[in-house]
Amino acid sequence: MSRHLFVAGTDTGIGKTHGAQALVHAFRQTGERVAGMKPVASGSARTPEGLRNEDALALIAASDPTPPYDLVNPLAMEAAVAPHLAAVNEGVALRWEPLDAAFEALKGSHDRVVVEGVGGWLVPLADNMSAEDIPRR
């Protein structure tokens, strides 16, 4: 069985971030090195460092050792709409390669990765790509 977990929900605002943070903290209490990950996020704020998503920042704050933002949230979009719509509007290509590379890097530096989904289980991300595909990879 995988040591890594995926936190899904039925919609945005349902408590995925809170649940993922709780899992990260619980595993850390057992002495594990744990990272939270939010591979795809819409509704990100522009900062001098680039787009930053509130959920991803919360997961970084819970993680130990602290992972770099670009591994926790490799695909961020500014618009607070469904990811596939934000990606089209912002010219962002949602592809597996950056998500897979970030997950592998986090696995290499942490005992466990807790991955938070985006929106609901069936949220489309791109053609032939939806949120439910993330844990299946």
Secondary-structure blueprint of this entry?
Elements: E1 5-7, H1 16-29, E2 34-37, E3 40-41, E4 45-47, E5 50-52, H2 54-62, H3 69-72, E6 75-76, H4 83-90, H5 96-109, E7 112-116, E8 124-126, E9 129-130, H6 133-136
Parallel strand pairs: 1-7, 2-7, 3-6
Antiparallel strand pairs: 4-5, 8-9
Helix pairs in contact: 1-2
Describe, in plain words, how this protein is organized in 3D.
- The chain has 137 residues and is of the alpha/beta class.
- It has one domain: Rossmann fold, CATH 3.40.50.300.
- It contains 6 helices and 9 strands; from the N terminus they run βαββββααβααβββα.
- The strands form 4 sheets. It has a 3-stranded parallel sheet with strand order 1-7-2, with helices on both faces.
- A hairpin with a 2-residue loop joins strand 8 and strand 9.
- Helix 1 runs parallel beside helix 2.
- It is globular and about 45 Å long.
- The protein starts with a strand and ends with a helix.
- The mean pLDDT is 94.
Characteristics:
137 residues; alpha/beta; three-stranded parallel β-sheet; two-stranded parallel sheet
Write a brief caption for the model.
The chain is an alpha/beta fold and 137 residues long. The chain has six helices and nine strands, in the order E-H-E-E-E-E-H-H-E-H-H-E-E-E-H.
CATH architecture verdict: 3-Layer(aba) Sandwich
Low-confidence stretches: none
CATH superfamily assignment? Answer: P-loop containing nucleotide triphosphate hydrolases
Give the strand order, joined by hyphens, for the main sheet: 1-7-2
The string of secondary-structure elements, in order, is: EHEEEEHHEHHEEEH
Structural class: alpha/beta
Strand content: 15-25%
